Amino acid sequence: MSITEHRILGDHRGQLVAIEGQQDVPFEVKRVFFIYGTQPKVPRGQHSHHKTRQYLIAVNGSCKVTLDDGKQKITYDLNHPNIGLLQDALVWGTMHDFTSDCVLLVLASEHYDEADYIRNYDDFLKVLGV
Ligand code: T46
To answer: Which residues are part of the catalytic machinery?
Structure first.
């Protein structure tokens, strides 16, 4: 779990943030998805992955992400498009407090596989051996 403030490139025309696989994110990016249009007061995520690592960026609007590794829970504020948050495998992630305009971009280390998800919190703790 770590948060990074990426360099903002750009000039008088506007801004640009570049994120490169295996450089700015510590894995090869195999999948990109984004979530948006989240309804007020509705959380997303609320699961962990066996293998998938994710890198989250609120490219528009803002949201909060609470990451829980079974020992501690930390809430991060994704409130600028140059901020990236690494969610490692076997970390429970909850995305919440979305602004209505929030677009949350996710770079993932694995292709989509529902079998990689742990969607029950007690199962998550069992996998961790807690
Ligand atoms: C995460 C947050 C931010 C796919 O078919 N392919 C995909 O790559 C993904 C991510 C999902 N799906 C399907 C599976 C479900 O039928 O899309 C549907 C909604 O997925 P889910 O309920 O997992 O959506 P969220 O918003 O709760 O969570 C998703 C990601 O799953 C999760 O890893 O970090 O967005």
So the answer is: 47
Choose among 93, 111, 110: nearest CA to 56. 93
**What is the rounded CA–CA span in Å between residue 36 and residue 57?**
12
The helix (H) or strand (E) run that includes residue 128 is helix 121-128
Identify the residues whose C-beta falls under 6 Å from ligand 1.
Answer: 31, 33, 35, 44-45, 54, 93, 95, 104, 106, 112
Q: Is the pTM of this model over 0.90?
A: yes
Give the model confidence (pLDDT) of 114-123 as tens digits: 999 999 999 9
Give the model confidence (pLDDT) of 64-92 as tens digits.
999 999 999 999 999 999 999 999 999 99
Closest residue by Cα to atom 1, ligand 1, is 45
